[in-house]
């Protein structure tokens, strides 16, 4: 029997629902985990349904619960010949949140893939663990995704968002000749990337030509670019950094950030580089001063519009959101 939670329910399943909403959506869910499906719980469910593209009725039925990863009913087994769709979430998100999971979830509901989130910390910048850097979090994501690829035979897709997109690119590098995953390169059906800090410069396979390139300064390997679809919305500085700004230098400074000795050593190394020394001598480096101004403009626009979080609702791709377009691309290839 399908589980349906609604107003006036009072049970342990409602407690699970409240706790999951608080964990995955802390910015708009601060519910008391008491098992009571009251007006506040209903309001948060409605907001979640709106953001997830579900029917907005305030009732937590199979679709809403399933989208939250709360599957109380035994689903029919998926055919074992379906490709895996590995999804890596962005910084500070759980595996069940963000464009990659949304894409995989919709494809799985169509019976086209087996959606498999990658469980890794997705941490960085002193949150939620001040002793874990972004770089360490990415390394743990690479290790877990590698484990999944080695464990499961057959075709697969890779899909990442933000930090998760860097995880994907680093795994692609492990598929190059002579690397540990080289024998699985032929099984890669495609890679879907949202707001990737490792986007290569030039036109994307989805038809647009964003300025600059990924902020990380290293990019999707040439060998896999014909199978990679990079989604970039206008103004997303993580995927559109240019040499006219100092964003890449800032990225290099912040990704090792942690309350441990290794970060202090990284900073000591960084401040000895020419780019940093120029920042301390702006009066004698007009080009650097211009970069500072351009960086401030780019960051200001980014903070004002926050395009990085709109891959699920901005219709920037021929009238579709990035998630909708990604679902269509994979559906046409399966």
Automatic annotation (TrEMBL):
Domain of life: Bacteria
Pfam families: PG_binding_1 (PF01471)
Domain Peptidoglycan binding-like: 11-68
Name this polypeptide is given: Peptidoglycan binding-like domain-containing protein
Native species: Mycolicibacterium flavescens
């Amino acid at each position: 029997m399908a589980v349906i939670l609604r107003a006036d329910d009072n049970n342990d399943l409602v407690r699970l629902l409240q706790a999951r909403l608080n964990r995955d959506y802390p910015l708009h869910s601060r519910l008391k985990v008491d098992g009571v499906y009251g007006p506040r719980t209903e309001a948060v469910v409605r907001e979640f349904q709106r953001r997830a593209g579900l029917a907005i009725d305030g009732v937590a039925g199979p679709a809403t619960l399933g989208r939250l990863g709360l599957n109380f009913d035994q689903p029919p087994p998926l055919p074992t010949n379906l490709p895996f769709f590995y999804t890596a979430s962005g910084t500070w998100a759980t595996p069940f949140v963000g464009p990659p999971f949304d894409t995989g979830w919709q494809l799985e509901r169509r019976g086209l893939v087996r959606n498999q989130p990658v469980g890794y910390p997705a941490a960085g910048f002193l949150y939620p663990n001040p002793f874990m850097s972004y770089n360490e979090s990415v390394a743990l994501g690479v290790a877990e995704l590698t484990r999944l690829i080695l464990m499961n035979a057959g075709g697969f897709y890779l899909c990442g968002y933000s930090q998760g997109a860097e995880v994907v690119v680093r795994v692609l590098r492990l598929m190059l000749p002579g690397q540990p995953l080289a024998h699985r390169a032929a099984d890669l059906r495609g890679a879907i990337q949202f707001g990737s800090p490792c986007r290569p410069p030039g036109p994307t396979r989805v038809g647009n030509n964003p300025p600059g390139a990924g902020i990380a300064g290293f990019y999707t390997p040439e060998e896999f670019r014909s199978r990679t679809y990079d989604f970039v919305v206008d103004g997303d500085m993580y995927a559109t950094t240019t040499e006219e700004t100092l964003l890449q230098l800032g990225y290099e400074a912040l990704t090792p950030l942690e309350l441990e000795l290794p970060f202090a050593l990284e900073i000591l190394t960084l401040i000895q580089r020419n780019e940093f020394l120029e920042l301390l001598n702006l009066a004698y480096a007009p080009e650097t001063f211009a970069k500072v101004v351009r960086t401030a403009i780019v960051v200001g626009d980014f903070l004002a519009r926050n395009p990085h979080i709109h891959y699920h609702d901005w219709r920037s791709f021929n009238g579709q959101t990035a998630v909708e377009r990604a679902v269509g691309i994979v559906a046409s290839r399966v």
